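Researcher: Please translate sequence to structure tokens.
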Amino acid sequence: MQENQRTIRPALAVIVLICFFMPFLKISCGGQPIASITGIDLAMGKKIEPPNPFGNTPGGTADRYRSDQSANTGQTGEDQLQFNNPSDSTQQFASSDSDNPFGSGTGEAKIDPQPVAAVSLGLAVIALLGALGASRRAMLFSAVAAAISAILLFILKSNMSGDIPPQMAAVLAFEWTWSYWVALLGSAGLALFTAKLLMQKEETRQAPRLIIQTYSEKPPSETVKH
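Model: Translation complete:
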């Protein structure tokens, strides 16, 4: 049983870290995926480069459309081809608000580094290192780091959802993925599980003292008179 408990803590910590390398947030426009943002991207920042649904390669859909328009109208296809790029909305709103997590002042679509995500990632690493140890101090560090990491992940979602401009929210769809929730719940679960083990360890440590104290407080037996 004790061996299983030692395995569970590192396993939970590893799962949380793996989730940081997976998409936390998916952005789409009109049902078309624009970007997948991992936990690492949120911590370090990322430039969003939406895929071109019409292709940029020679001979692609866009080129064929230009050729058809040129043949039918006698004009260049560039004058006729005016597709609405989903990233236009992102780029427009990226520079409109200083609190916007999707960039400010650059006019390009990107995710600014989120300090809350960076700290949460660092604490997840500390939680893993603590989970590898069996000492009381290591377990305590692991529990505290995991608990704070879970709280910061919750704050991250709240802050980003609240800072998205209404114009952008009306155009783009933001979905927090299962890997984000696994990271949050995994961190909380690691903190609670480690705290439970710490309490059990403390009770086991206090048990011999209670036995000795109880024995020492036992009144002496009365002397039998003859």
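Researcher: Any highlights?
Model: The chain has nine helices and five strands.
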